[in-house]
Amino acid sequence: MKKIFLLLLTFSVALFACKKETQLEEDLDDIKSYIKARNINAEKTNNIYYEVVKEGTGEECEAGDTVAFKFKMCKLNKPDSIMSSSLDKALTYILPATIPDFSTDSDICLPGFQIGITKMKEGGISRFYVPSSYAFGSTKIGGEEYVNLIYEVELCEIKHYDTRH
Predict the structure, then answer these.
(1) End-to-end CA distance of the chain, in Å?
(2) Which domains does the chain have, with CATH numbers?
(3) How far is CA 28 from the centre of its chain?
(4) Is there a contact between 55 and 144 (Cβ–Cβ < 8 Å)?
(5) Beta-bridge partners for 69
(6) Residue by residue, what is the 3-state secondary structure of the chain?
(7) Could you report the per-residue pLDDT of 127-159, keeping only the tens digit for each?
(8) Please, how many CA atoms are within 13 Å of residue 61, restricted to the half-sphere of its CB?
(9) Which residues of 128-163 are buried (b: 16+ CB within 10 A; e: fewer)?
(10) What residues of the chain score a pLDDT lower than 70?
């Protein structure tokens, strides 16, 4: 009986060691697979991937800037089904003074969105591939937990933060 217990214990440890270390790693693997399967040219920054669809002009927006944008959002596993959008009217948002690396305390924009938009220039269109940890986390969306998102964003206007006031 002792040998069987040790064998099961060894098997359990080996099985556990093969499991992904974190949800973020699993999410990033899913996103990388999605990007690779579709031959998408996306770059990684702060654990999100972004793809420039149309290059904007001028400077990139920064923390503290006020931005006007249009967007559509879908699940990575259902890219043809729009979950939320604002394509007919631009929304205005003030980016926090410090863009979070890992937090979901924003009322409007999720950290992955905030990180991605700082890679954009006015008039540009980009797609952000956002892991669930930088979006809604374990909150169920359409009956699913840990949903990776795709945002397609048009950055309509940037009002740069004036550091003199």
Answers:
(1) 75
(2) 22-159 (3.10.50.40)
(3) 10
(4) no
(5) 91, 155
(6) CHHHHHHHHHHHHHHHHHCCCCHHHHHHHHHHHHHHHCCCCCEEECCEEEEEEECCEEEECCCCCEEEEEEEEEECCEEEEEEEEEEEEEEEEECCCCCCCCCCCCCCCCHHHHHHHCCCEECCEEEEEECHHHCCCCCCECCECCCCEEEEEEEEEEECCCCCC
(7) 999 999 899 888 888 889 999 999 999 999 999
(8) 33
(9) bbbbbbbbbeeeeeeeeebbbbbbbbbbbebeeeee
(10) 1-20, 98-109, 163-165
- The residue among 117, 115, 7, 141 whose CA lies nearest residue 56 is 117
The two tokens of residue 154 are: 């048009």
How many residues are recorded in the chain? 165
For residue 64, the model assigns a pLDDT of 87
